From TrEMBL:
It comes from the Eukaryota. It comes from Linderina pennispora. Gene3D superfamilies: HIT-like (3.30.428.10). Its EC number is 3.6.1.29. It catalyses: P(1),P(3)-bis(5'-adenosyl) triphosphate + H2O = AMP + ADP + 2 H(+). Residues 155-167 have a biased composition (Polar residues). InterPro entries: Bis(5'-adenosyl)-TPase_reg, FHIT, Histidine_triad_CS, HIT-like, HIT-like_sf. SUPFAM superfamilies: HIT-like (SSF54197). This is Bis(5'-adenosyl)-triphosphatase. Residues 126-137 have a biased composition (Basic and acidic residues). A motif (Histidine triad motif) lies at residues 94-98. The lineage of its organism: Eukaryota, Fungi, Fungi incertae sedis, Zoopagomycota, Kickxellomycotina.
Length: 167
């Protein structure tokens, strides 16, 4: 099974969840621990390019993955974001939902998270991406953890294979 993310081919080792129309990807440059992406399996750029079925699946899986990362990363809240188009900050032209576990005082100013989501922060007029890409090994390790937590968490194996949201 191969996974497209815009122009990229994603190794299966970095994917922690697959449903009929979406998949879950660990992040190359997480803005906070547990920052993951739910990606449409069909490689389309804009949210409005998705069919009704794809929207349903993306958001149902978004709920499922939200519960997962909130629990695993011991968070209290979540930031959910879609940067829909280049002018909105989208850097990978393929629909994806960002899911970021949030904790009390994780940023001095709560809304600084939105600066962190920019793939290229501009500091004094200069592009300055401070976050270092993670190694393939580190990403695979996190995907393995999330995969196993997702498996243990669902008592109904069918929810894992058919992509319906578990409770
Ligand atoms: P956006 O700027 O909204 O398009 O978000 C792109 C996201 O994809 C950012 O969070 C990046 O860190 C992440 N990203 C870019 N390349 C990869 C990759 N090869 N594997 C996983 N995540 C990636």
């Amino acid at each position: 099974m191969s996974f497209r993310f815009g122009p990229l081919i994603i190794p299966q080792s970095q994917v922690f969840m697959v449903s009929r129309l979406s998949y879950g990807l660990v992040n190359l440059k997480p803005a906070v621990p547990g920052h993951v992406l739910v990606v449409s399996r069909r490689p389309v750029t804009r949210f409005n390019d998705l069919s009704a079925d794809e929207v349903t699946d993306l958001f149902q899986q978004g709920q499922r993955v939200s519960r997962l990362v909130e629990r695993v990363y011991k968070a209290d809240s979540l930031t959910l974001v879609i940067q829909d188009g280049k002018e909105a900050g989208q850097s990978v032209p393929h629909v994806h939902l960002h899911i970021l576990p949030r904790r009390k005082a994780d940023f001095a100013n709560n809304d600084d998270i939105y600066d962190e989501l920019g793939s290229r922060k501009r500091v004094r007029g200069v592009d300055n991406d401070e976050r270092v890409p993670r190694s393939a090994e580190e990403m695979a390790e996190e995907a393995e953890l999330l995969r196993s937590e997702l498996g243990e968490w669902s008592s109904d194996a069918s929810t894992l294979s058919d992509g319906r949201a578990s409770t």
